[in-house]
Amino acid sequence: MPKPRVIVIGAGAAGLMAAGQAAAHGAQVLVLEKMERPGRKLLISGKGRCNLTNTAPVAEFIAHFGPNGRFLRQAFARFFSDDLSAFLTELGVATVIERGGRIFPASGEAGVVVAALHRWAAEQGATIRPRAAVEELLVADGRVTGVRVRPTKPAAARSVAEAQILPAQAVVLATGGASYPGTGSSGDGYRLAAEVGHTIVPIRPALVPLETAGDTAQRLQGLSLRNVRVRVLIGGERRAEAFGEMLFTHFGVSGPVILTLSGRIVDALHAQQSVVLSIDLKPALDEQTLDERLQRDLREHARRGYATILQGLLPRKLIAVCVDQTAIAPRTPGHQITGEERRRLRAWLKDLRLEVTGHRPLAEAIVTAGGVDLREIDPRTMASRRAPGLFFAGEVLDLDADTGGYNLQAAFSTGWLAGRGATAAAPTTARKGSPGGRSRATCGSSPCSRTRRRR
Fold this sequence. Notes:
Blueprint: E1 5-9, H1 13-24, E2 28-32, H2 40-44, E3 53-54, H3 58-63, H4 73-78, H5 81-90, E4 95-98, E5 102-105, H6 110-124, E6 127-129, E7 132-140, E8 143-151, E9 164-167, E10 170-173, H7 188-195, E11 200-206, E12 210-212, H8 216-219, E13 224-234, E14 237-248, E15 252-254, H9 256-270, E16 275-280, H10 287-300, H11 306-309, H12 316-326, H13 339-350, E17 352-359, E18 367-372, E19 377-378, E20 383-384, E21 390-392, H14 406-423, E22 442-443, E23 446-447
Parallel strand pairs: 1-2, 1-10, 2-6, 10-21
Antiparallel strand pairs: 3-5, 4-5, 7-8, 8-9, 11-18, 12-15, 12-17, 13-14, 13-16, 14-15, 16-17, 19-20, 22-23
């Protein structure tokens, strides 16, 4: 039987997975990538180390995506973190588990993952065509029938004749989001989906640094704080909190704990609500224990000045800020600090506040929130409910999670489903002998085509 022609738009994590799965299961696959090389965004993920996934059980995994996480149950039931690790191991990419259950390539290099996925997809028979920008999805009789593509050459070298029509029985849209546009994720997928009738949930930055009022952040620029608790106050009410590491910058704050909280903060700012960060610098100590610690320090260092005593409590950069904001003269001897002043210091240590005035632009966000409305997609196959023949995978969907490997796993899982769903456009015979392409549809050493009870 003739092989179905499947076109995959985008050669990132989701696109390469979809392409390899489709080709391994009998499709003639063409991957169109507008950049020079595939996997550009994957190369910078996890600060270049590529946080692939996480060991969290499926219920916890889904919770990291918020209300939309329910959409991923089918994808995770078919291809989850253990399947991904086994799949990569079979491709020669060993993985390691680090703090918080985060899984990385053992080499610590994202390039190893990109190379392995690229090689695997090509070995299955997928053809990857770089510098090819899709201008339009073609539709006939209500069905997607192909794409119009144009080489990404300099404007002076373009001509109308260069546009090319490529027919397909199925198209997988895996163009990524709109963050880090230099990697190729410039939002093309939203336009293409909207043009064939899909609803686009307004896009906005997720996992993005925040801008703060005043000069506190600027004074602390470059300071990284570990093991702090950050609470988010929206309209004066506590709405979220996280524990971990944060970083002060010239514009405000960043770091893992800030990125984790940023999604809710961005939405609040767009709704013109007031947002304040409350930083607990001593989360391991309750109010009473901290007060006892302060009394002991002041007693033991009775003749030392206030600023000197603070050296045992705070990083050097924080001392001047603490002195100013607690309004205690830096040379005040410990024995002269009053009970009221001590309570003021204790309150500051447990509740250092920063007013959030904005967030960095979408181009600086790690992930894009918003995207193709999930109600218009079949979660069992990633097929469009609006345009038959069209499938979706990865960040173009209205799915985003916090840091920890969750977003990449979603890209791989939805790509896995989309590739197989697209191949089902016509009867085929699966090829054998490669990861993800066996007649039993296994991935590495673990079966991943059948729905099974997860952790």
